[in-house]
Amino acid sequence: MAFAINMLNVRQIQILILLWNDDYTGTELAERVNSSRRTIIRDINEINQYLIERSIAQINSSSKYHMVIKNYREFQALIEQFEIDDQTFLFKLLILKNKSIDNLMAETYLSKKEVANTVERLNNRYQGFVEITSKIGKGYQVDFQRITKVDLLAYLIFNNPKLIQNVPNLNMPKINNLIKEDKQYIPPEINKYLVSKQITAQFLALNICQIDDAKKFYLEKIQILNKLNTASIKKILRQITDKYELQIEETSLVTDITEHLCRNNLFPTFISASLTKQIKDIKIKNPFAFDLANDFSQAAKEEIKDIIINDEYIGLYVVRAIDIISEDKNIKILMYTYQRSIANINENILLENINNINLKSVYSKDEFDNLLRDNSYDISIMNGPSSDNSGKFDISINGIINQQHISYLKRITSNYYINKNLGNIFTPSNYLNLDNQNGSYLDNLRIGLSEFKSRDLLGDDLIRTLINREEAGNQLIIDSIIAVPHASSRIKFGSIFAIKLENPVILNNNSINLILNVVIDDQEEASRQIFSYLYKIFHNTSKEKIKQISSYEDLFKILNNPE
User: Fold this and answer.
1) How far apart are CA 301 and CA 304, in angstroms?
2) How far apart are the C-alpha atoms of 431 and 242, rounded to whole Å?
3) CA geometry: angle 225, 230, 231, nearest 5 deg
4) If you write DSSP's letter for every residue of 342-370 in order, what string do you get?
5) pLDDT value of position 415
6) Nearest-angstrom CA–CA distance, 91 and 94
């Protein structure tokens, strides 16, 4: 298996992926890639040399290794090539008759350790669909759940048609004639959802697997397709959305999910490795959308047997449906200005640079006072001499708006809800230093929540919801150090209940130092900004600073500084 990125081996690219997602110590990396710390140090030096020479990225080292990407396009190419190499390995494994370790090493040009690492990575990548196991004396064995060998081969061929060059004795002229003839009999339902290239990939996979009866293959697909319709999806979705009380554009979401499930069950696909970090970031900012998607997937699997469904795909559709509802909820700004010409210039500057505002300009102080009194404006701007600022304005600008004003307005508009209400969202009573000596993550979460209950801040129902969500395993973690249990309740402001742990606890291989229990009114779009705000704040805060938090004032200062 010839790597396009010749200087980096399988283990080194795996390290690259890990550092793209998070910071790690040398010991942590050694555990993740099943290697020694000495080897990691050597690998980091080689990776760094490769990245710096090409001006792609650089790995810095303090307490942990941290990667700074300089050329995202080139870095993305590395990740994509890494996935191509993995898919090439998997394709060869599937078509090999003799799947012994020696034969696999000979076919892929990988060492025994690299083969083992690649197999482990593929098992994680296709968990729930494919399991690769090693049998003594028999080599590797591939077992499938919910998809078939034909499905997986078709997916790999569709992504990389060059893979069929690895298939021995493949008579392409004969296969092309068969495809041309058999396509005439493809049911119209298939053509509605699949493109020609996907159908061709399926025929090639059928041929490789020596399955002559394409009609039977597609008949089984149609049987699954018949179970998927907008009525059944709408019924399941309503059961779930009623529980979450989310404001969602239901019609578009039902259509999107139904069509996605039809496409994905006819031709199963998987989220690419290059998108995993982006989806992780979206999930952190929109946890309720992915919680809903997880519940929907579980309910759909029980209601509609034998379907293929991916939580993360559904979560992306839910986020989109929420965004459709939220598009019109711009921040309202009222600007009082002396000169119309200046007002026109400033309006254009604001509207070109800030995309989430609804701006109105007035030229009379009386009109300004009346509008501010009778209408709900979020921000007021005084555009004139500062001596005329009567204290009624949030911002004073004398003359043309400059870049400093733009940056300031961008900051307060993007974080408006939090900036305005942080004192209500996070009060001194909402903070707890927990001197934990032992116990699991859940044990310490229960202790902390019980303390907030004793302060009359949380009730039993809300505590139960927070704990049940964490016990279900659908945890939200920011930068591998902060756990964010979350729940929805009808409250005027969102609330953050912080538990700072004296001693870190382990959660999903992450060392958790801070637990931020977040309660929001999920019917209020502004309230959901809390998650995006927290992600932005802590993603730009050093882990050492988070570990050093010892008081309410320490944490409030971090939360109140969205630079």
Assistant:
1) 5
2) 32
3) 110
4) HHHHHHHHHHHH-SSEEEEEE--HHHHHH
5) 67
6) 5
